[in-house]
């Protein structure tokens, strides 16, 4: 079992990598911006480097020594190459080079900034590189800076030796004077113990004098040369830059890397779902379908043989084979927030798809704030169902206007309970009439599809969840946040419902849905309304009971499949 699990995970890793790469391509503008920045940087480097020439010199350093051939000499310990490199780059060296070149003080900064000094590893060599627009001037200034460094270091060593010689000489002079005075005293002393003691003191003084003179002699014998030039600057024959083609290539590659990095950072901090898998994990349900762009028409199924219609049919079949939906055949279609266009389109087209399979479908528009389905769909007839003629106390005006029949073309027809504006929306949604209406799905051949306002905008959908427990979430992954989907699932589950899955769609262009609806109504709606008048109802008028405020409310009855 574990081997199978490891094998499946191994097979999924390439697919995950491909999915992540596809998600990175969503931010093409970031990748394109990175490439543009890289190309601009490469062009700038190629253009500025075309007229720059670099001249180089090398110096091997050495420590002051009286015997350069002594095998015990260790110059690498006596010389700190890091300190020497900083000395070479100092302003003091640049000032000395400016004097050698005969330039003004304004050239000191330019000499200092155009110089580069490096130290090859495990060597006592300093590599001087000077860059200028004129090759001859670059070579001349490189030599001047090199010689200025040598002169400065020799001057520093000479200064150190001079101070040491002065210190030794200051120590030697009083000792020598004391020795001279002691010598005069010894000549005057008789032989005896006093003379012997004076001779002992004089011997110590002579040893001290000998030691100091030996140190002075050694210092004077030191070779104070700080180093030797092993390569003089030659006039460069080609520019120092990489060239425009190579610079553009390097800049383009660097720009691609920069763009991909920016896209990856944007992807990591993007709150929107990056894929169908993110949507499925957020709602803890499958993504039943992905609608193509422009598939948010009021009625697609039955009017055109298109990819969108087939996608709706596929969603309907997947729901039909879901045990959680097949047991009760109640479906609540909602959107996270914003417009209801997408959720209404999904609800209408799923109703038409269920009607194609021979089901008696009732579409309930639970939007009691801005109802519009009866105006957007092709309503061919009106009837007064029996559930509108029940007696007893009336709780609300909705759904008292009766059922409309929607012509879905080749898919057949399905019933529509349009929404209407009411005084008390929560009271209407939780009334016994609404409950009895939704209970029509108890008929084995019936299916009830309810479309409600967005969950995060109004609590209307949550008021219906306990009766329409199967919920389908319709969302655009580019405009909704993962946190919103998680919040919707928590609200639905907390209200006693079940998330059957989600349907994703691409955001349509502004006015696309309304224009498609208007075109469909002009082609079919006018002819239908003129040629097919509303069928007269053979049912008696519904009983009306006065409310407390003097208005009338239609009582609730039961709709059976034979009444549609």
Automatic annotation (TrEMBL):
UniProt xrefs under InterPro entries: Bact_polysacc_biosynth/exp (IPR050445), P-loop_NTPase (IPR027417)
Protein name: Lipopolysaccharide biosynthesis protein
Region annotation Disordered: where it falls in the sequence: 505-564
PANTHER family listed in its UniProt record: FERRIC ENTEROBACTIN TRANSPORT PROTEIN FEPE, TYROSINE-PROTEIN KINASE
Residue ranges of the TM segments: 27-47
Domain of life where this protein originates: Bacteria
Keywords: Membrane, Transmembrane, Transmembrane helix
Span of the signal peptide: none
Residue ranges with Basic residues bias: 519-529
Organism for this UniProt entry: Streptomyces colonosanans
SUPFAM superfamilies, A to Z: P-loop containing nucleoside triphosphate hydrolases
């Amino acid at each position: 079992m574990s081997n199978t699990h490891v094998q499946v995970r191994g097979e999924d890793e390439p697919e995950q990598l491909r999915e992540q790469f596809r998600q990175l391509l969503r931010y093409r503008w970031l990748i394109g911006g990175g490439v543009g920045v890289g190309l601009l940087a490469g062009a700038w480097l190629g253009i500025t480097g075309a007229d720059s020439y670099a001249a180089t010199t090398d110096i091997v350093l050495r420590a002051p020594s009286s015997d350069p051939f002594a095998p015990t000499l260790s110059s690498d310990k006596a010389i700190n190459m890091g300190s020497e490199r900083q000395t070479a780059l100092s302003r003091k060296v640049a000032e000395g080079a400016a004097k050698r070149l005969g330039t003004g003080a304004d050239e000191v900064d330019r000499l200092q900034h155009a110089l580069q000094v490096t130290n090859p590893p495990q060597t006592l060599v300093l590599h001087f590189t000077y860059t200028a627009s004129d090759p001859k001037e670059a070579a001349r200034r490189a030599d001047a800076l090199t010689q200025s460094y040598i002169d400065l270091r020799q001057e520093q060593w000479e200064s150190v030796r001079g101070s040491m010689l002065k210190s030794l000489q200051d120590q030697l002079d009083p000792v020598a004077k004391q020795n001279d005075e002691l010598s005069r005293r010894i000549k005057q002393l008789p032989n005896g113990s006093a003379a012997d003691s004076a001779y002992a003191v004089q011997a110590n003084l002579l040893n001290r004098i000998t030691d100091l003179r030996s140190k002075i002699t050694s210092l004077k014998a030191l070779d104070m040369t700080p180093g030797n030039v092993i390569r003089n600057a030659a006039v460069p024959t080609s520019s120092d830059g990489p060239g425009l083609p190579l610079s553009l290539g390097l800049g383009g590659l660097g720009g691609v890397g920069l763009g991909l990095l920016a896209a990856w950072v944007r992807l990591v901090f993007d709150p929107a779902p990056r894929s169908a898998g993110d949507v499925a994990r957020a709602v803890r349900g499958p993504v039943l379908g992905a609608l193509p762009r422009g598939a948010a028409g009021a009625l697609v199924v039955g009017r055109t043989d298109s990819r969108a219609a087939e996608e709706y049919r596929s969603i309907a079949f997947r729901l039909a084979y879901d045990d959680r939906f097949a047991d009760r055949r109640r479906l609540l279609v909602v959107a996270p927030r914003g417009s209801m266009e997408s959720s209404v389109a999904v609800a209408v087209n799923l109703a038409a798809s269920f009607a194609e399979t021979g089901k008696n479908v009732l579409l309930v528009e639970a939007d009691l704030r801005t109802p519009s389905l009866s105006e957007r769909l092709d309503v061919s007839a009106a009837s007064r169902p029996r559930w509108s003629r029940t007696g007893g106390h009336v709780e609300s005006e909705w759904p008292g206007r009766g059922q409309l029949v929607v012509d879905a073309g080749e898919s057949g027809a399905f019933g529509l309970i349009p929404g209407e504006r009411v005084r008390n929306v929560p009271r209407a949604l939780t009334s016994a009439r609404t409950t009895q209406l939704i209970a029509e799905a108890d008929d084995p051949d019936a299916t009830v599809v309810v479309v409600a306002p967005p969950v995060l905008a109004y609590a209307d959908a949550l008021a219906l969840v306990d009766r329409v427990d199967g919920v389908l979430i319709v969302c655009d992954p580019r405009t909704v946040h993962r946190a919103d989907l998680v919040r919707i699932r928590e609200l639905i589950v907390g209200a006693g419902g079940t998330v059957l899955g989600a349907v994703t769609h691409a955001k349509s262009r502004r006015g696309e849905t309304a224009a498609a609806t208007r075109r469909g109504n002009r082609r079919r709606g006018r002819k239908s309304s003129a040629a097919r008048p509303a069928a007269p109802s053979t049912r008696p008028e519904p009983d009306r009971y006065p409310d407390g405020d003097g208005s009338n409310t239609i009582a609730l009855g039961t709709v059976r499949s034979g009444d549609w």
